Amino acid sequence: MSGSFLSSAVFAESRREAVGRLLECRVAGHWQGRLSSSALSTATAITALRLVDERLTTTDHAARITAGAGWLAATQRPDGSWGDTVSSRGNLSTTLLCWAALEAVWDTGRRVTGPSPAVAGAGGGDPLRASIERAAGWIIGRTGSLDPTAIARALTDIYGRDRTFAVPILTHVALCGRFGDPRSPEAWRPVPQLPFQFAALPQSWFRLVDLQVVSYALPALIAIGQVRHALAPTGPGRLLRTCARETTLARLAEIQPSNGGFLEATPLTSFVTMSLAGMGHASHEVARRGVAFLAASQRDDGSWPIDTNLATWGTTLSVAALAAGGKLHRWLTAADRDLVRNWLLDQQWRARHPATGAAPGGWAWTDLPGGVPDADDTSGAVAGLAELDAAGGPSSAAVAAAAAAGLGWLVNLANRDGGIPTFCRGWGRLPFDMSCPDITAHFLRAAVSWDRIPREAGGPWAALEPRLQRARRSAARYLRSTQAADGSWSPLWFGNERHTAQANPTYGTAKVVAATLDRRGAEWLLAAMHADGGFGGGPLLPPSIEETAIATEALASVAIGTTDAPLRGRARAAVEAGVRWLVEHTAGGTHFEPAPIGLYFAKLWYFEDLYPLVFTVGALERATLLADAGAPPAD
User: Fold this and answer.
1) Burial of 467 (0-12, 13-18, 19+ CB in 10 A)
2) Which residues make Cβ contacts (< 8 Å) with residue 182, sequence separation at least 6?
3) Does residue 321 sit within a domain?
4) Residue 252 resides in a domain
5) Residues 123-161: tens digit of each pLDDT
6) Cα–Cα distance, 150 to 359 (Å, whole number)
7) Looking at the structure, do residues 289 and 355 belong to the same domain, yes or no?
8) Are 535 and 506 in contact (CB under 8 A)?
9) What is the reported pTM?
10) Which of 255, 504, 608, 610 has its CB surrounded by the most CB atoms within 10 Å?
């Protein structure tokens, strides 16, 4: 592409700026990132702390509750709603949680909220009261009324059979007194009873029973099921549930991480803590550790993030981005690579996970105790170790063994359909326990990454190789079977709020195309591109830095690897346009505005400050490989 934008000084300078900023984001040699603050997390956290204070007759957390309530009031959308992030559209789930939390803080009065004018006092003109009334009006506009039945019906319409998040929301609203006195059984009629008694069974039996929640939500199943049963014991399984209370409470304590934070997630930890407090167990060891986690997680502005960090994920994404142009050795010195390599090796789980029963060999998204091994992060770590080895330096038998263990973990995780789920093979039939295209494609890229790394004969690879090859063929068949008629794929862990189904076929298709060079998928991406080179979550949707970068990098891979000459030419032209768009919309690689495209558990939106930066670096680095042999990439 001699004479193209990719050979220009503007591109070279933008690339250097973006890479430099990504390198500056390291903390102790790896990347930690920063997740967006969350209205949902903040609402659930202040409710958990308030209930603990009330049950223990203290005001130990009054200042934290005041700060959290003030942050909610200050970040409410003009229409009275809240979204999952400050950049998100308002949604019913988060608005219900915020409305209920603030109403309860208001009801508690000055004893809890203190003298802050943002949340204390009474009468007209008070910001908190006005915020609550705006929220109530917005909710009524969506549900028809604040009647418990109307609220429960509206949540069922959103979540259907999956009770992973619907029941916690209803429990939170009930504990805040919005359905009446929480001590009255009548207040709990809208809240379905979760079958927490099944948590007393061996984990291997879980797939045989109807847990009604996904695998990662076992703590919520126990705690929320218990508070509903304690305050309104009804139904044919009442006696069995009563008998299982102590056993499952003990199980809850066993699976709680050492720092108290279930999955490092503020909402999940809050739901567990408020449920225990609501049933009179505010001093239980699980509640005490939960409170400690929440107290340590609050930010200076009074808010809480959705999760503590995505350090492993952010680190492996960063390594992949820096390596996308084949120049990882330029950006990370041998000493830098050793730091990242050793840090990644330290994050590999070497014991069975107490909560999900995951076997040793996988990686979680974080370096903190609440992480759970998952397929996406395991694939990222395996591929990252390969890139670090390929960049030069002494190859280690320990690194190869760790990678083999990770790939073996992934092979064992594969479902019967050949696809890769997130956490657990065959645990359930709800989305987060089913195969998904983006994670399956990531597995394929991780497996291919080690094809180029010399390995000693024998050892763990000898037994793994035939199984790995079969798993790769099965994964490819799964991807072919799940491709939409228009050539696209939709991912599980990323979405777009403006898409009619809140899906993100741009992200999903780009990930599969990068792994397989699928022609129909590449054609879909080319058709989805805006005239100016940008990409949104789907055709005609407003573009973002993240989506443009992901699609541009995938098309660059097509332009490099396809044998279809016409497709190669159109892909190269699209990369040129996509790179121009990125340079323009990042102010030459110096400014990166994040978009809420990330989907957390139960389809909660988040943005991560690293995403637009790291995805842009990946696109710019991969694009350098498209320079003609006579016009080397701009360095």
Assistant:
1) middle
2) 174, 175, 176, 231, 278
3) no
4) yes
5) 456 889 999 999 999 999 999 999 999 999 999 998 877
6) 43
7) no
8) yes
9) 0.92
10) 504
